[in-house]
Design a protein that fits this description.
By secondary structure, chain A is an alpha/beta fold. Chain A has six helices and eight strands; from the N terminus they run ββαβββαβαβαβαα. Chain B has five helices and three strands; from the N terminus they run H-E-H-E-H-H-E-H. Classes of the chains: A alpha/beta, B mainly alpha. Bound molecules: guanosine-5'-diphosphate and magnesium ion. The site of guanosine-5'-diphosphate (GDP) has 14 residues of chain A, from helix 1.
């Protein structure tokens, strides 16, 4: 089927839209972080994902497509005082493998991603970290310091997640807008550095989009 | 998933696609972040109530596909199908963005746009905790 480009209005130009992905395991503070800086109450949005799965009941063990629902958060903020009018969209998305199809959509054209890490469940950060690494999408790791959790040094988390030195690792309280804004700023300067050191930085390729 | 959970999910799926009269694919190339504005047209009488809702939301302000889906509590794909119908009758339009906004889907936003984002965030949160840069 041929997809058409939607008709465009020629009247007043809209602000430029930029998007940032906030990924992390269940309970890592994604919704909290989106809420901290969003101008709207974070919306929980659903999408259908088609998963290939093997129907164990079928004789031939044929591959069948199964549709499941995934939910992700949406928040937005406008930056009318920026040099160009901007709107920033934030997408909060869980870290399981079955979300990968959604991550491709979210990552396309994005500024980058913040991987929120709950040090009590470090292992849930592995999937998003390797996904963004493979895609070549700039990302930073933000350690969410929960009350009562052991405080790890960012360098300990870097070692545990096997992150290259170029990836910024910061600590934050996802409830505090200044902290979340700081993590966003860290990501933006990291993305600038990526874009300027590597003009043709590894972008999502066609083969990845088709995956 | 439990058999019951599965059945429940399936029936929601069927109900939802009744809305789009069985169509599972939108006619237009729409992203999760595609923004829509109300146009000169109107939703037709044969279109589901959800089209009126989408139109009303976009009359208030520009809304992204994701925001519309979240507010309607309908899956993104379904909303894309309905939005496509509304684009056909000019009830919705995709607003022209600032020329700077030519974000390359493959390479990400331009460095000018990133610099503008950084400046905008700093203006909005002058007390943002700045971190030393690694690397
Ligand atoms: N102490 C502390 N609690 C947090 C922080 N971020 C989130 N929480 C709490 O942790 C719980 C899970 O956060 P939530 O944002 O819902 O996680 P999500 O599953 O990643 O969306 C909530 O009760 C939050 O209030 C944080 O930075 N510090
Ligand atoms: Mg959440």
């Amino acid at each position: 089927m041929v997809l058409h480009t939607p008709p465009r209005s020629l009247v007043d130009a809209a602000p430029a839209v930029l998007k940032i992905v906030i990924a992390g395991g269940f309970g890592a503070g994604k919704t909290t972080a989106v809420r901290a800086v969003s101008e709207i109450t974070p919306l929980s949005t659903e999408e259908y994902l088609t998963e290939a799965s093997v129907d164990v009941d079928s004789l031939a063990g044929l591959e069948v497509k199964e549709t499941t629902t995934v939910a992700f958060d949406f928040g937005r903020l406008s930056l009318p005082d920026a040099p160009v009018p901007l709107e920033l969209f934030l997408f909060g998305t869980p870290g399981q493998d079955r979300f990968v199809e959604l991550w491709y959509d979210l990552s396309r054209g994005a500024v980058g991603a913040i991987v929120l890490v709950d040090t009590r469940r470090l292992e849930s950060s592995f999937t998003p970290v390797s996904f963004f690494e493979d895609l070549g999408l700039p990302f930073v790791v933000a350690i969410n310091q929960f009350d009562g959790a052991h405080r790890y040094h960012p360098e300990q988390v870097r070692t545990a997640l096997e992150l290259p030195v170029s990836v910024p690792v910061v600590t934050c309280d996802a409830r505090d807008p200044n902290h979340v804004a700081g993590a966003l700023l860290t990501l933006v300067s990291h993305a600038v550095k990526n874009a300027s050191t590597d003009p043709a930085h590894p972008a999502p390729t066609t083969s990845l989009q088709d995956a | 998933m439990s058999a019951h959970g599965h059945a429940a999910e399936e029936s929601t799926f069927v109900r939802t696609y009744t809305l789009t009269r069985g169509r599972t694919r939108p006619r237009y190339l729409l992203g999760l972040e595609t923004v829509l504005d109300a146009g000169q047209g109107r939703p037709g009488p044969a279109q589901p109530e959800e089209c009126e809702e989408i139109f009303a939301l976009c009359r208030e302000r520009r809304r992204s596909v994701t925001e519309l889906a979240g507010r309607l509590r309908r899956p993104v794909t379904v909303v894309k199908v309905l939005v496509s119908d509304l684009l056909d009758v000019d009830a919705l339009v995709v607003p022209l963005t600032h020329p700077y906004a030519d974000t390359d889907a493959e390479c990400g936003p331009s460095t000018q746009l990133l610099a503008a984002l950084s400046a905008g965030l700093k203006r909005k949160w002058p007390d943002a905790i700045a971190y030393p840069q690694a690397g």
